[in-house]
Design a protein that fits this description.
The complex is a heterotrimer of chains A (222), B (255) and C (255).
Chain A lengths: L1 H18 L1 H20 L4 H30 L5 H7 L4 H30 L7 H26 L8 H24 L7 H29 L1
Helix pairs in contact in A: 1-5, 2-3, 2-5, 3-5, 3-6, 3-7, 5-6, 5-8, 6-7, 6-8, 7-8
Chain B lengths: L3 H4 L6 H14 L7 E10 L2 E11 L4 E5 L6 H8 L7 E6 L2 E2 L11 E4 L11 H11 L6 H8 L4 H4 L8 H13 L5 E5 L7 H14 L5 E5 L3 H7 L2 E6 L2 E5 L12
Parallel strand pairs in B: 3-8, 3-9, 6-7, 7-8
Antiparallel strand pairs in B: 1-2, 1-4, 4-5, 9-10
Helix pairs in contact in B: 4-5, 4-7, 5-7
Chain C lengths: L18 H24 L13 H28 L2 H33 L7 H21 L4 H32 L15 H48 L10
Helix pairs in contact in C: 1-6, 2-3, 2-5, 2-6, 3-4, 3-5, 3-6, 4-5
The chains are: A mainly alpha (222), B alpha/beta (255), C mainly alpha (255).
């Protein structure tokens, strides 16, 4: 299964490197959102600084929806879904591979987003350990959930708009926990940063396990 | 007797399967029959695309499926590939009962339909290598497969979206051949190809038996197809209405 | 297209009620009456909340009924994936629908109560927020159910979404609860004298049971409607098979 995951992840990342969708389209989108929030909150720097954690993770969620949409729309074209079923790859392996590639793409997006936020919202990063752990755990959970709901909702006419409805409520706890953890790291929150990070870890484990367990039927029947 | 890889209760790894393929070719083992259908019904939603098919295909045969559009040819091919569950009747492919386990035979099947099954943004070589690795086959075999479909060197490093339809078909074929399937299921393999490519396809189909594969292909190109095929089966109304291998030229079929 | 309109044969099913559900329905009505009596007549107003506390007798039971239905949905979803049973698939559908209804009711009633008591329609407390998220998740479930698909595909998809949502309930609940405690938001229930005793306690318990029964009654009826629809489609398949075979017109024999 891990071998299959490596093959699929490699293929996905090579695809992304070739087509550069994340780089050319999603990164500018991220920058745009950062600016839009600035406009929405009337460029109130103090307010923006306070709201940074939440805004950061909301932007990550929106970017995640776009990336997941793209990642699974590819697999729907040109009979690739059939080819995957016939390929001999294990469903769990494909799931982990897709999740891994989503993880990598999201981490890059988050790095750039972090830079934008530091620049535009005048934020001084602190608590690096907590920030990094939170980011990794949250991104893992987002990637896993995205890989679970992606095949259900992406790539077919009349289905694309279903993905946000499925994914965002499910990721609400991630948003909650990650924002609170970031707040604590930035010295602003009410505490318990590491507990929130632990909760993110639990979420990630639940969804990774679930994904590996149900991806077989998902691949076959959808 | 069935070869070990297919009959074993646990799923064989693709590597094992490729190995046993070599083995059986070397010893000229034949499994009979490769495809065995009795009163098979396959549903697309609620619609019975196949409404009771009886068919037996032995190893090494090259079977042509004819019939009007919408007769159920594509569905029959997909059923044999294990992509669709049999709703009724008995379906056995390569010795495996498909109502019990449809996944075991998949590494041994090569299906080529109207779609390419290739990633548009990857090059031909990358595509074939990916599908090879996925099947547990050495990625270096990709070169050999691409040679067989006579795809020029410079084309192999182009991304699929920049290829012509004919080149895409060849690339699809290569992706199928590199896995060395035992059963080839081809849905209108000549469609959209120029004369040279059609000759190539005919050649490959003809060769298939020599490498121990069985071929079932659907085609509307009757002249060309009938020259290559060892047997002609006509499908209409979701059933087999004519079979050149049966003595009367048509199976007993209740109206 | 086959003509699916059929006059009901003697003994055919004409409604989804049965002896059992009629009794159940009766119990529900009687129970509701008693609850109403107690809620408005027997129990007194709350010390802090005044008359509006009576809404609690609706608000809390809808939540508990919803949770039970969601758990039932999760159970049926697991069974559907595991055993591919149509019964459990339809039962999952029915419980999800009724459960979503209950959740919606909870939110509306909660909003009204909030307005009456604290002047705000929405309060970011743990229970309401969790309920809102759950409501959204099950709306997603129903949306997935509504996608056009073959019954088996739909069953698999919905089961996966249902299981994923159910797995999330404890995570959501814990995190929201924790979050609310950080802000020192008292839960809605916390604002009531927790030692509601005697009549108030009895009424609340009774109301919870009654609403659970109402949920059950609604689910059974909904399930039966779905079941009958499914049966109707099954019956259609045999006719469809015959139709399909008749598409083939044998060529007229030449003299």
């Amino acid at each position: 299964m891990l071998r299959d995951a490596r093959i699929v992840a490699g293929k996905d990342l090579r695809l992304e490197a070739r087509s550069r969708v994340a780089v050319n389209q999603v990164l500018p989108f991220v920058l745009a959102v950062v600016l839009l929030f600035g406009f929405a909150l009337d460029a109130d720097t103090a307010l923006l600084r306070r709201a940074t954690s939440g805004l950061f993770w909301v932007t990550v969620l929106f970017s995640a929806v776009i990336i997941v949409q793209r990642s699974f729309a590819i697999e729907r074209h040109d009979g690739i879904n059939d080819a995957l079923r016939l390929s001999g790859l294990s469903a769990g392996g494909i799931f982990l591979g897709k999740a891994a590639s989503l993880f990598c793409q999201l981490v890059i997006i988050e790095l750039v987003l972090g830079l934008c936020v530091i620049v535009f919202y005048d934020v001084t990063p602190s608590g690096a350990g907590l920030l990094i752990v939170t980011t990794l755990a949250a991104t893992l959970g987002i990637a896993a959930a995205g890989s679970l709901y992606g095949p259900l909702a992406a790539g077919l006419r009349n289905r694309d708009t279903l993905l946000p409805l499925l994914l965002l409520p499910v990721l609400a706890p991630v948003l909650l926990a990650a924002s609170r953890a970031f707040e604590t790291a930035l010295g602003r929150g009410v505490g318990g940063g590491w507990q929130w990070a632990a909760m993110l870890g639990i979420f990630a484990v639940v969804y990774l396990t679930l994904g590996v367990a149900v991806w077989g039927p998902l691949l076959e029947e959808t | 007797m069935v070869t070990v890889a297919v009959a074993a209760p646990r799923a064989a790894t693709p590597g094992e399967i490729a190995q046993s393929h070599e083995w059986s070719v070397a010893f000229g083992l034949l499994m009979s029959p490769v495809v065995h259908l009795r009163a098979a019904v396959a549903l697309l939603g609620r619609f019975p695309a196949l409404a009771g098919v009886d068919l037996d295909v032995d190893a090494g045969e090259i079977v042509l499926l004819r019939g009007p559009n919408g007769a159920g040819k594509t569905t029959l091919l997909r059923l044999c590939a294990g992509l669709i569950p049999p709703a009724r009747g008995h379906v056995e492919v390569l010795g495996v009962d498909l109502s019990v386990d449809r996944k075991a035979i998949r590494p041994l099947i090569g299906l080529m339909g109207h779609t390419t099954g290739l990633y548009d943004d990857l090059t031909v070589m990358e595509n074939v290598q990916f599908w090879a690795r996925a099947a547990g086959v050495d990625a270096a075999d990709a070169t050999a497969a691409l040679d067989r479909v006579e795809l020029a060197e410079r084309v192999r490093s182009l991304t699929v979206e920049r290829l012509s339809a004919g080149q895409r078909r060849r690339a699809s074929l290569a992706a199928m051949l590199v896995r060395r399937p035992r059963l080839w299921l081809l849905d209108e393999p000549h469609a959209g190809l120029d004369a040279q490519a059609r000759d190539l396809v005919d050649g490959l189909i003809g060769e298939a038996a020599r490498v121990g594969a069985t071929v079932i292909f659907a085609s509307h190109e009757l002249d060309r197809a009938e020259a290559v095929a060892s047997r002609r089966v006509t499908i209409d109304g979701g059933t087999v209405v004519q079979d050149s291998s049966s003595p009367t030229g048509a199976p007993d079929r209740a109206p | 297209m086959t003509d699916t309109s059929v006059a009901p044969a003697a003994g055919a099913v004409t409604s989804t009620s049965s002896g059992g559900t009629r009794i159940l329905g009766l119990i529900c009505l009687v129970g509701l009456a008693i609850v109403g009596l107690y809620a408005f007549g027997v129990t007194g107003a709350d010390v802090r909340l005044g008359e509006s506390v009576r809404i609690m007798y609706v608000h809390v039971p809808t939540v508990t009924a919803a949770y039970c239905l969601m758990i039932a949905n999760a159970g049926f979803s697991v069974f559907t994936l595991w055993k591919r049973s149509t019964f459990s698939d339809l039962a999952a559908h029915a419980t999800a629908e009724v459960g979503t209804l209950m959740l919606g009711l909870t939110l509306i009633v909660g909003a009204i109560w909030g307005r009456m008591t604290w002047g705000a329609f929405w309060v970011w407390d743990a229970r309401l927020t969790t309920t809102a998220l759950l409501f959204l998740m099950y709306l997603g479930y129903l949306a997935v159910r509504g996608l056009p698909a073959t019954p088996r595909t739909r069953a698999t998809r919905s089961a996966i979404v249902g299981i994923a949502a159910a797995c999330l309930i404890p995570v959501v609940h814990k995190s929201v609860e924790w979050w609310a405690s950080l802000h020192q938001n008292e839960t809605v229930l916390g604002k009531i004298n927790p030692n509601i005793s005697g009549n108030q306690y009895f009424t609340l318990m009774l109301a919870m049971v009654v609403f659970l029964l109402i949920g059950l009654w609604l689910s059974i009826h909904r399930f039966r409607v779905l079941w009958l629809t499914e049966r109707l489609d099954e019956v259609g398949i045999d006719a469809a098979i015959d139709d399909r075979r008749s598409e083939y017109r044998p060529p007229v024999a030449q003299p």
